[in-house]
Amino acid sequence: MTKERFIYLLKDTQLNKVPFIGDHKFKLTKDIAKFGVRNLKGGHTRRPEVAGAKMYGEQEVTKYIANERNTAIQRDMTFYALNLLNFSSIGNRKEIFLDIGCGNGVSSQIIEAKGHMVIGVDISQSLLAHAKWNTSLNDFVQLDVSTGVNFRSEIFKYAISVSVLQWFIKEHYLLNLFRTLQFILEKNGKAVFQFYPRVVTDLDLTLSCAEKFFNGFLVSDFPSANRGVKLFLYLTNNSKVRPYDS
Fold first, then answer.
1. Tens digit of pLDDT per residue, the chain (246 long)?
2. Which long-range contacts (CB under 8 A, 24 or more apart) does 150-154 make?
3. In terms of DSSP bridges, do strands 96-100 and 156-162 run parallel, antiparallel, or are they unpaired?
4. Is there a domain that residue 101 lies in?
5. Would residue 35 count as lying in a domain?
6. What is the CATH number of the domain that holds 181?
């Protein structure tokens, strides 16, 4: 497998403002095809968003939580996302993170273990019940992310979302999400979304909606993999666009 790494910059983002961690070498490109999205259709197992509301039932939730491979992947993607957020530089400051589509709280657990507070949102009551059981300090709110993430302005400095955004790749859902996210993030607040777009046009739409409200970039570490391509969308709230201008 070719160990290529590609980066796509959102509108008005300068390359010298991209805070890469370590000595990673990324190739700058505007060719979205290089990011390894191969119009995969997949079934309900590989593409749970295809199953829709069925995934919220207790039976499916129990099956998902029992899958150790899913948990391991979730943890790996969380650590990668936190690395992009330069998590280690936060030090002893106690920050409040937003975990979008928190599920059973895997990402929230990792952040809590570092001494930070997390507010997790998810549409599934069953998953939230498990998240509350698995953590001690965090708050969890039932919320349909397709309507946006509605909290008071500038309450969060960081937001994270792992394996969720592909559920909401419709223009009005994405605009709701990114518009409200810009409103609730502090100035220069940051967010990282790891997601699995089904088709290249999904990726194009996601990027075009995100750059209405944020600067940032898209990265892929494994674009030549046959399966398991991992994409990370990094957003920073220093755009000149006001949250409700669009």
1. 456 778 899 998 988 778 765 556 778 888 887 787 765 444 334 444 444 444 556 666 666 666 678 788 889 999 999 989 988 777 677 889 999 999 888 999 999 888 899 999 998 888 888 888 877 767 899 999 999 999 999 999 999 999 999 989 999 999 999 999 999 999 999 999 999 888 889 999 999 999 999 999 999 876 555 555 679 999 999 765 555 554
2. 150/180, 150/184, 151/98, 151/119, 151/184, 152/184, 153/183, 153/184, 154/183, 154/184, 154/185, 154/186, 154/187, 154/189
3. parallel
4. yes
5. no
6. 3.40.50.150
Overall number of domains in the chain? 1
In a domain, 246, yes or no: no
CA distances from 116 to 19, 31, 119, 132, 163 (A): 22, 38, 10, 16, 22
Phi, psi of 123 (to 5 degrees): -85, -20
Is there a domain that residue 241 lies in? no
Q: Which helix or strand (DSSP H or E) is residue 160 part of?
A: strand 156-162
Residue entry with tokens 């059973």:
104
* Domain extent for 171: 40-208+229-236
